[in-house]
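Appendix B, record 7
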Amino acid sequence: MKTYSEAGVDIDKKDIFLNELLKQLKFKRKNLSPFLGAGHYSALVNFGRYYIAINTDGVGTKMLVADEMKKWDTVGIDAIAMNVNDTICVGAEPFAFVDYLIISDYDMKKAKEIGKGLNKGAKRSNISIVGGETAVMPDMVKGTDLSGTAIGFLKKGKQITGKKIKKGDLIIALKSSGLHSNGFTLVRKLLKEHNLSYLDKIGSKTIGEILLTPTEIYVKTVLDIIRNSSVNGLAHITGGGLRNLIRLSNKKFVIDDPIKPHKIFSVLQEIDNIEYKEMYQTFNMGMGFMVIAPEKDENGIREILKNHGMFGKTVGHIEEGNGVYLPEYKITYDSY
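Structure tokens (predicted):
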């Protein structure tokens, strides 16, 4: 099993499916029309002098790993991180969150640990959890599912959509904490196919512990960068890997000096001889977030990263053309 598609998640078919759904969404409320709708990381809705940013996401099949390990204290962080990291991609500051938890039974340890994770995620991103829903569905699920919705705001005129990205801009990547919350359908099936256990070790940690490392939250760092730099584009590298960059602009994103991936990525690649093209379009490969900015702002952004204790580096630049290009592996992605 060498591809995400073979594992059961076909990114291209997902796009077709989504387009069929979106074609039916024709109604728009008057006086609250969206400025930026489906297709970007977060929708922007007109609200007086401001835009309200709204987006939703979940932990995905990483929850199956948590259930197997009986360790749920990090997945709440993931649920918030996957959302607030999208919110900041349009320049909005997230301020509120609602969660949606589906369970099959009443496991009190699970409730306590998920709650602790949600609280940590809220603190790290400086948001309030203002509500949520817990649904008990023993006939529909045998484990747990956790998702949520983030709400943010920004003043009109301050939105960052990627339209200002131009030739010569630099691509600065912020390091991920690991797999984050994407590609786990492939990960789980690879491990099973090659008889690897979550309790097997890579270095001093078990595979399960490594997989459950929570998603990095970039909110405070990126908001600081936005306030003090001329940022032209922001990308949260989630499902689809580097193909996410294509959502921002029809320019050419050249990644000629990528961050070295964490050990877990090379382990997964080597056990089934997966091609680099598949790896970089399924996983973040060590680069969880990207900032596209003019060259003149590079040193200032580096200083902000240093102040926040966040590792980042200039991994590429913008050229005329379109798509994403990794010269080291002669890889080109021309569609999201």
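Remarks on this record: The two ends are 23 Å apart (CA to CA). Residues 62 and 102 are 14 Å apart (CA to CA).
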